[in-house]
Amino acid sequence: MNDAQREGVRYLDGPCLVLAGAGSGKTRVITQKIAYLVRDCGYHARNVAALTFTNKAAREMDERVRKIASKELIKGLTISTFHSLGVRMLREEARKVGLKPQFSILDSSDAMAIVQDLIATTDKGRLRQVQSTISLWKNSLIDPEEAEKIAATAAEAEAARAYRSYNATLKAYQAVDFDDLIRMPTQLLERDAEARERWQSRLRYLLVDEYQDTNACQYRLVQLLTGVRAMFTAVGDDDQAIYAWRGATVENLAKLTTDYPSLKVIKLEQNYRSVQRILAAANRVIEKNPKLFEKKLWSDLGAGDPIKIIPMENDEAEAESVCVRISAARFDYQAQWKDFAILYRSNHQARVIEQSLRNMKIPYLLSGGQSFFDKAEIRDVLSYLRLIANDEDDPAFIRAITTPKRGVGQATLDVLGTYAGEREIPLLAAVFEEGLAQRLAPRQLTPLREFGEFMHRMQWRAGRGAANKEPPAPAEPAGPIISDLLSAIGYERFLYDSGEERTAQTRWQNVLELIGWLGRKAEEDGLSLVDLVQHVALVTMLEKNEEEAPDAVRMSTLHASKGLEYPHVYLVGCEEGLMPHLGKDDEDGDPAKAAESLASRVQEERRLMYVGITRAQRSLNVTWCRKRRRAREDVAREPSRFIEEMGLDTDKIVDTEPTLSPRERMARLKGLLKKT
Ligand SMILES: Nc1ncnc2c1ncn2[C@@H]1O[C@H](COP(=O)(O)OP(=O)(O)OP(=O)(O)O)[C@@H](O)[C@H]1O
Ligand SMILES: [Mg+2]
């Protein structure tokens, strides 16, 4: 460690902020400081917590700490995301915030389904808008009453009304959404001195990575957790703030200096990650943004290879070219697959690249994208299976009973949710209660009961007995139950009714793939449907954890790559409209406001570009396409303004190599395969 880093690690006289550019060893200060606290300063690991933003970053930090501190020393240490700390706090404090300890957590698509029922529209864009407005309010600790007061436009007024019912609905379902995981503990600590003191004495030292991306709520939570003692270290880089769209605010860095007059600010200037050419390009790009804090960065890792700027004909050529180049570079640099990363702005860019990687049999690992188990159709089908296995899975009940629609409206679900909440029973059980029947009209009750009976029949076939029925017969094999279930609910027809034919086809294929996989699994391992569901939950979890680190090319969105580093980086799709991706202009008509919002969006995209460039250690390749397919048309594209901003006068290599013909490509590939 250099002197500045050491100072950051050793400083314990009060709050400390390490403010420095990419790759300067900020995260390293955190991991070293954890070791220092538990090894040299007598802190109990259970009194120390380090917070980051993604599971991946948390895991990475955990690995780094394990390398420098012994197992016994770090027993009980908390290294987690803000969200998982929130879950832990809520589980322990559930009763104080009016929840059962086994409350469920809705992910954003479950939450979207609720919003959809509250707002009478099929306009997906509008629904997303409402959902994100509610989310921004939650993250700024604005409650529905206040939101109604401050709503300035008709759209915001609509969102504010939806916000109130949305919260009521969640409460009725004994469920929370992602934002609640941080908002509710924060509000609890705010009003409950006993809980506040308990948590403060439990977490005696707090470390926060990527501080520039905290939102108002997270800022407040850290403040409440650390109290007047203010024993914390935050590290961050205002130039890497890329979550403004989710309510994060860089001002939190400046706010720290005013909220804590005794704040110790430490700056780091040496970059240990990237060769000079890469660092210089990154610095030149970020210079174009207004500065919040003065920062310098230098590297003594040598000039390194020239950065390559590679124009391509279209996105397919781009994908192929990147794959061919990676194969060649793997040989040239004597590198492994896992030393390469392909980074892109939007998830939809991944598909073509995945196709090429598969064609060329290059192993790859996709992160930050939508996994198979997150696809809507898979989640639909799994919601039925989850409910077969577990009566109490209320979010699964809600998803299943509303997909496909079977004439159960929001009003009915509200009554059901409230009734089940009062009686403290699961929704599925509530359906059959006389007390519920008295609150509903027969036309509301009938579809509920039909659904309940249908689910009970399925449970019965799966070997589960219902309370009021005879003991279950032996379980039928899972395969036929699932097929019968899908035809009974008309799921294939539902897919074709709700989307265009091609998408429906792909989605139905995905469902068939799932059934096939489940069927094989059931047969091979002799699993019942109930076992299977648990198995799937485990697989889903494992997939989300990506525990193993196989030798494979990394594919990631720029956002998900934050904090990570790779020897060789391919930054693809660097075109105007994609990178920067500027979205639609504001529609409120005020030109001055529109210009201001455009400027701030460009700045946020520039920071994202800076994040992308600074992931690279040894080599950087930037590609853009002259044409890109959108919907069914080829659209002409211009190179990203950021390419010019990188200012690559001397090392600018405009690669003129034409797209290879298939025959040339095969010849070249064969040559490469021979070499490796
Ligand atoms: N003093 C040091 N000596 C040698 N290597 C170092 C030193 N400090 C950090 N490094 C290495 O430099 C790289 C970047 O460090 P780190 O990830 O901590 O930077 P960071 O400031 O957190 O970057 P980012 O802003 O991208 O999150 C890592 O590989 C780390 O191991
Ligand atoms: Mg870091």
Automatic annotation (TrEMBL):
Residue stretches making up the UvrD-like helicase ATP-binding domain: 1-275
Domain UvrD-like helicase C-terminal: start-end pairs: 276-563
HAMAP family recorded: Helicase_Rep
Catalyzed reactions per annotation: ATP + H2O = ADP + phosphate + H(+); Couples ATP hydrolysis with the unwinding of duplex DNA by translocating in the 3'-5' direction
Keyword Metal-binding applies: no
Sorted UniProt keywords: ATP-binding, DNA replication, DNA-binding, Helicase, Hydrolase, Isomerase, Nucleotide-binding
Keyword DNA-binding part of the UniProt annotation: yes
GO molecular function (one): single-stranded DNA binding
InterPro entries xrefs: DExx_box_DNA_helicase_dom_sf, DNA_helicase_UvrD-like_C, DNA_helicase_UvrD/REP, Helicase_Rep, P-loop_NTPase, UvrD-like_ATP-bd
Any one of the GO BP annotations: DNA replication
EC number: 5.6.2.4
Summary of subunit composition and partner proteins: Homodimer.
PANTHER family in UniProt: ATP-DEPENDENT DNA HELICASE REP, UVRD / RECB / PCRA DNA HELICASE FAMILY MEMBER
Phylogenetic lineage: Bacteria, Pseudomonadati, Pseudomonadota, Betaproteobacteria, Burkholderiales
Domain of life according to the entry: Bacteria
Gene name per UniProt: rep
UniProt name for this protein: ATP-dependent DNA helicase Rep
Record: residues binding ATP: 20-27, 273
Protein family: Belongs to the helicase family. UvrD subfamily.
Role summary: Rep helicase is a single-stranded DNA-dependent ATPase involved in DNA replication; it can initiate unwinding at a nick in the DNA. It binds to the single-stranded DNA and acts in a progressive fashion along the DNA in the 3' to 5' direction.
GO cellular component: cytosol
